[in-house]
Amino acid sequence: MLQLSPRWPWRRLAAAVGLAVATAGALATPTVPVLHGGADSTGLPTLGDSARADLSPVMERKLGEEIMNDIRRDPDYLDDDPTIEFLNNFGENLVSFAPGARGEMNADFFFFAVRDPMINAFALPGGFIGVHSQLLLSAQNESELASVLSHEIGHVQQRHIARMIGQQKQDALLPLAALLLAALVGKAGGGADAAMGVMMGGQGLAIQRQLNFSRDAEREADRVGFQTMRAAGYDTSGMVNFFKRLQSTTRVYGEAPAWLSSHPLTGERIADIQARIRENPKPIHIRPDSIEFHLVRARVRVLQDESQKGRDEAKATFDSELAQPNTQQQTAAMYGMSYLSLKQGDLKAAQSWLDKAKASMKPRPGVFSSERSGTDGSAMFAELGTEIKLAPGQPREIVHQAVQDADAAYQKFPLSRMLARQYADALIADGQLEKAAQFLRDQVQQYREEPKLYDRLAKTYAAQGKIALQHMALAQSYTLTGALPAAFDQLNLARKAKDVSFYDQAEIDARERELTEREKDEKKEKKDNDR
């Protein structure tokens, strides 16, 4: 279910595709259940052909990408590589236990975070799932986070948005039919009050049908989420624990958390989940919390509010956690203090706290192995270590050491996108421009849909004085983020550059033709949708 903060500009896109209706100053997506068709291996209903006719998987993905392009330009989008990488590793693991979640297109999911003090999460068309920063801070363990993300995966897996659009088309006829009937009642001498009653009744029926669909969809997403998190080895009681804590927040503060507003929680839903827990015993081996979960929460706590007040509150939280007996919390607090010190420009303190955090991960007598289960967080420790060495004000020898550290980390974790991009950053900072350019050219051949790589390539070319190539790289970055006018402008600048070659001109011509066709197709689609 989608709930967008009123200050975010994405509402325009969401409303344009019929994914949201105004409720209490925010936007909430009414979703509908899947009540017909066959059944999949989970025993849940599968979607019939009518859903595909209402919104094809291709169009659903495209709509999601358009909304994501808008979200990425918002200042509240947490464009933080370690946070994004953790969420996607965590989410992709859940998706692997959700049969058919990728749909007939075998589409990739993308998980991301936005800075917001409301506890919420939402699913967009096409497998894009957002998490509010406050939800990450409120989840006490990975099982609670898994319960929320599995629920959102359930919405995507059951294609609730496609069904919702189809149902809205049907419901749109109800007020129209009521209006016609009201006119007949008035003609027959029923009076204005009777006619108004018939008309309002038709509108009320449409609204009630949407509410019923929303409730059914939430229950269905609960069931899918429960099965997914259980199959993935998480403690299913985490779903009930999280729901109950949100309910207690409502009782204490008198205002429902955003997640409950956009995902209406009833006693029936909690009872249904509790019944499933009784009927389905916990996995023999429950997945323990990883240290990365606690490290990311510490990082997000620093990013949540970057004002002085926010930083003071973050420090107070870390001080409190340092006194806790849980070693993972202690380590995460040290990591958080390191990241906070970096943000405040105290590089010496940042390095000192990071060294303490890494040292705390070494096994010590008397520490239960259950607290040490899972990964050791070395990728995130390495990333922060290099981030500190690349901070402004570091001497040249430290920056050179950052290159070696980043190279070693990338060699150890070759699939890590954050470490790959950071290695490129280190090469650029150290002035190894040709090596950086070659590395980035190899990267864009493997990861063609990653605009951040093209941004770094453009930065490298600019430092080398290769102006035509700089603008061509920027054009590709803008193309990937849907900013076609800006992409055309960059290609025009590349064409006028003094160092543009014959081969560059040929490539610019080809790209302009592609963009012109794409722009033409998008205008045609918009015109068709407006009819």
Q: What structural category arises from helix and sheet content?
A: mainly alpha
Cα shape: globular
Distance between the termini: 27 Å
Percent helix, as a range, is: 55-70%
Oligomer: single chain
Main beta sheet = 3 strands, antiparallel
What does it look like?
- The chain is mostly helical.
- It has 3 domains: 251 residues, no CATH class; 62 residues, no CATH class; 100 residues.
- It has 24 helices and 6 strands.
- The strands form 2 sheets. The chain has a 3-stranded antiparallel β-sheet. The chain has a 3-stranded mixed β-sheet with strand order 4-6-5.
- Strand 2 and strand 3 form a beta hairpin.
- Helix 19 packs antiparallel against helix 20.
- The two termini are 27 Å apart.
- The N terminus is likely disordered.
Keywords:
531 residues; 3 domains; three-stranded mixed sheet; 4% strand
In short, what is this structure?
The protein is mostly helical and 531 residues long. Helix content is 66%, strand content 4%. The radius of gyration is 26 Å and the shape is globular.
Any chance you could write out the topology, listing elements then pairs?
Blueprint: E1 3-4, H1 11-16, E2 21-23, E3 26-28, H2 49-54, H3 57-72, H4 81-95, E4 110-114, E5 121-124, E6 128-132, H5 133-138, H6 142-157, H7 160-171, H8 173-187, H9 192-231, H10 237-253, H11 258-262, H12 267-279, H13 291-304, H14 308-322, H15 327-343, H16 347-360, H17 378-389, H18 396-412, H19 417-429, H20 433-446, H21 451-464, H22 467-480, H23 484-496, H24 502-530
Parallel strand pairs: 4-6
Antiparallel strand pairs: 1-3, 2-3, 5-6
Helix pairs in contact: 4-6, 6-9, 6-10, 7-9, 8-9, 10-12, 13-14, 13-15, 14-15, 15-16, 16-17, 17-18, 17-19, 18-19, 19-20, 19-21, 20-21, 21-22, 22-23, 23-24
